Amino acid sequence: MSTIEPTEKRQWILEGLDCANCAMKIENRVKKMEGVASCSVNFATKTLTVETDSRFPGEEQVRKTVVSLEPHVKVLEKRSSGAVRTPRNVKVRTDGAELRSLRPVHAHDSAAAADAPAHSHAHEQGQPHSHGHEHSHGHSHEHGEAHAHGNEARAASGEGHAHSHGEGGTRKTVLRIAAGALLAAAGYLVPSGGYLELGLFLLAYLAAGGSVVWQAVRNLFRGEVFDENFLMALATVGAFAIGQYPEGVAVMLFYQVGELFQDLAVNRSRRSITALMDIRPETARVRFADGGTQIMSPEQVEIGDIIVVQPGEKVPLDGTVIEGSAMMDTSALTGESVPRSAEKGTAVLSGFINKNGVVAIEVTQIFEQSAVSKILELVENASNNKAKTENFITRFARAYTPVVVIAAALLAVVPPLVISGATFSDWIYRALVFLVISCPCALVVSIPLGFFGGIGAASRSGILVKGSNYLEALNDVKTVVFDKTGTLTKGQFKVTEINPAEGTKKEELLRLAAYAESHSGHPIAESILAAYGDEISAGAVTDYEEISGHGIRAAIEGRTVLAGNARLMKREGIAFREPKAAGTVVHLAEDGRYAGSIVIADEVKDDAARAIASLRDAGITKTVMLTGDAAAVAEEVGKRLGVDEVHAELLPQHKVERIERLEAETRGTGKIAFVGDGINDTPVLARADVGIAMGGLGSDAAIEAADIVIMTDEPSKIGTAIGIARRTRAIVWQNIVLALGVKGAFLLLGAFGIATMWEAVFSDVGVTVLAVLNSMRALRRVEV
């Protein structure tokens, strides 16, 4: 029997990755390495993600593979935020220039602590340390190491320019273009046909495009033929060969200008995407028992520590407010525009921004388990799960360029041999136009940026999508299945009726129920305990047993007590009475005798009806509600919300069976999405075509099982997610039609001798710039 070998996920930053086609080549080459189970390059964040097994030869082999394809790219390991737990005696960058040790700041130093910059950067003395989050602004280098390595440090933590040009590189590119343009202008002014003209145009060509030609030559020796450098070099050198000096130089100048604008557009898109995820807190102000405070990295703070958050600061870790009150801006995490009140006892999440007031918070999660870490990890890794459209474009690009190059070669050679009066120079020129057009950059750059932009926009709206494949799948959803409790209803139960049987008092019935439910964490149990209000005597409950899908059996003060639904009473052969009131009913029996029932009502969420209506408006053909609750309660909720089908009194396994039955009924007509609270619905979330967890930030099970996580408890966000998915698909297909349509038209025009190299260059870099700018529209938030 074969066993599946465990894999380990590793990530590297590819600093200087400025070409989407190159990213695709790196991904394809690394995938073929021994021991690599999967590989994905996120061009937007310059991250290489690899899953490896025991056969993996090591990081150095990855570096060699990447550098063999792109020598200018630096491969820097990206560490997870929780990889290193640094000691508390860290050094903190306080003014951007010097490092100083921070001693505990006592009461009279509080002003100094308050004035500490919000973007202080923690350094570990004597050993490297990385924040891990690619979009953070931290620095990572050994204390005392020369600043010559600053670029590598910034790349490891994501700071610095998203493109290898950087500010200095952009300046050099502009100077090269200017020098080439001046030399070309001089070439136009001198008499034509002489060596002076050729010399000036040759100098202009080398000034403008020498780097392109050199890169093409290096790629040839590495066996990388069909890339944009080779195609552009071949086309322009060919122009010189047939005496078209001015056009060869002009095309290279236009190409470089277009590449510069493309880089600027891509960088702008990258900055817009990273700005959406700029939610990582840089520092935490920890308060000690003596009242002193110290600023440290959030990774160093431990559960139980007390942190102080002042106005304007981000909450650095998940916790509970123990002192003070403030209004919290939660929009970065949940998409909610209205600030949320936080006072003593309120749970707050990392990434919230304190609008006013000073609060003290007791930390409940270490940083790597905090809400902000989970969000960043999900969004950054979303590109690993690629949509069918992305995979299609990758395969298409691999075949498209060689086919066009072969077609160009045939176009240069065949017509002069078979068409009377045709000249080689004319048809070679047409073939060169073909070569300029053939680079698939517009598709390879804009489509991943479009999907990543859509995922970023969803995150900004409080919706975490775990991959562009799930975002694309939302477009095909026609049936949405809801869990009831905690999804369409608030899950905040209240005891509304106590119905004791003859011989039992109300107070005793409620006490029995409270003792029986005292070991359960279910919302129904919590509502009964809240209604009881008294302490539970230690040791009063023994032989506690939860009966899945039925209820509880427990020995209470020597008596056997059953508490559960009607199925439990039927199973135990106990006669019972069903109350008329709508709500969840808990029946109780004592030593085999029916003791009565307690009715608990759940409140429907404020936007649940609007969510169902918005789905119908979005073209969802069927809405279904599944619940383990009583049929009467389920029917009443379903009728109030306008749900098409209601299935009640289901055990967890029955919900999976119901989903499978729905899939059989709807096969070929669309996908099924299941929406649950992520606690008891893990099997169904995993089984559905698209699993959506509601309010799942605190539930590891939800994040693991679901494909999409709604960070709030608002079912209306599902309509928002579908809206984002449809807009993203529209933008992606606009780019595909634009790129292929323009390229196809210019290929025909070039073949018939109508299009010149000028138009050919526009069809390449110009369309790429337009497509990238169009992809940025996916970043906008969608309101439903």
- H/I helix tally: 24
Structural class: alpha+beta
Identify the strand order in the major beta sheet: 17-29-28-27-18-25-26
Strand content: 15-25%
**Which radius of gyration do the C-alpha atoms yield?**
32 Å
Averaging pLDDT over every residue, what do you get?
Answer: 78
Helix content: 40-55%
CATH topology of the domain at 374-489 and 604-784: Rossmann fold
Q: What distance separates the N and C termini?
A: 51 Å
State the oligomer. single chain
What ranges have pLDDT less than 50 throughout 5 or more consecutive residues? 80-166
* Shape descriptor: elongated
Q: Do you know the CATH architecture of the domain at 374-489 and 604-784?
A: 3-Layer(aba) Sandwich
Describe the structure.
The protein is of the alpha+beta class and 784 residues long. Among the domains are: 8-78, 2-Layer Sandwich (Alpha-Beta Plaits); 374-489 and 604-784, Rossmann fold; 494-601, 3-Layer(aba) Sandwich (Calcium-transporting ATPase, cytoplasmic domain N), CATH 3.40.1110.10. The chain has 24 helices and 29 strands. A seven-stranded mixed β-sheet has the order 17-29-28-27-18-25-26, sandwiched between helices. The longest helix has 35 residues, at 717-751. The model is unreliable at 80-166 (pLDDT under 50).
Summarize the structure.
With 784 residues, this protein is α+β, with helices and mostly antiparallel strands. The chain is built from 24 helices and 29 strands.
Helices and strands in order:
Blueprint: E1 8-15, H1 20-31, E2 36-42, E3 47-52, H2 59-69, E4 74-77, E5 91-93, E6 99-101, H3 110-115, E7 121-123, H4 150-157, H5 166-189, H6 195-221, H7 228-241, H8 245-276, E8 284-287, E9 293-296, E10 306-309, E11 319-323, E12 326-329, H9 331-334, E13 340-342, E14 347-348, E15 353-354, E16 359-363, H10 371-380, H11 388-418, H12 424-437, H13 441-460, E17 463-465, H14 468-473, E18 477-483, E19 494-500, H15 506-516, H16 523-532, E20 541-547, E21 551-556, E22 559-564, H17 566-571, E23 584-590, E24 593-601, H18 608-617, E25 622-626, H19 631-641, E26 645-647, H20 652-666, E27 671-676, H21 682-687, E28 690-694, H22 700-705, E29 708-710, H23 717-751, H24 757-775
Parallel strand pairs: 18-25, 18-27, 25-26, 27-28, 28-29
Antiparallel strand pairs: 1-3, 1-4, 2-3, 5-6, 5-7, 8-9, 8-10, 10-16, 11-14, 11-16, 12-13, 12-15, 17-29, 19-24, 20-21, 21-22, 22-23, 23-24
